[in-house]
Write a structure and sequence with these properties.
Length: 110
């Protein structure tokens, strides 16, 4: 016996039963490949994971850019340019921040 998919398609108030053949059973009901709930959930979870990864890569880049600006400001604006006044420390901080930014950009493109 052939089953029809139990899912409904369309917007609220204008729905119709999916015409596809129900090939996968779930909780005693039959669904097509597209509407089978576990398959659908897996697809949504994968999409959400991809979105999270993309978002956090962008956040990391934004943070790294902020660190570069802060380090550059400390480098240029802090009055004391003597080595004892922390010049090397500030230079190191600036180079580190730039390196972090480049790494964050590379990680996004990987
Ligand atoms: Zn269906």
């Amino acid at each position: 016996m052939k089953h029809q998919c139990e899912a409904f398609t369309g917007q609220s108030g204008n729905t119709s039963r999916c015409r596809a053949t129900g090939a996968h059973e779930h909780d005693g009901k039959w669904y097509c490949r597209l509407h089978h709930p576990p398959t659908k959930d897996g697809r949504l979870a994968a999409r959400s994971r991809a979105y999270d990864a993309k978002w956090s890569a962008r956040e990391r880049i934004r943070e790294a850019e902020g660190a570069v600006v802060a380090a550059a400001e400390a480098w240029f604006l802090d009055g004391d340019k003597s080595v004892d006044g922390g010049l090397l420390y500030r230079a190191d901080r600036l180079f580190r921040a730039v390196r972090n930014l480049l790494e964050a950009r590379e990680a996004r493109n990987a």
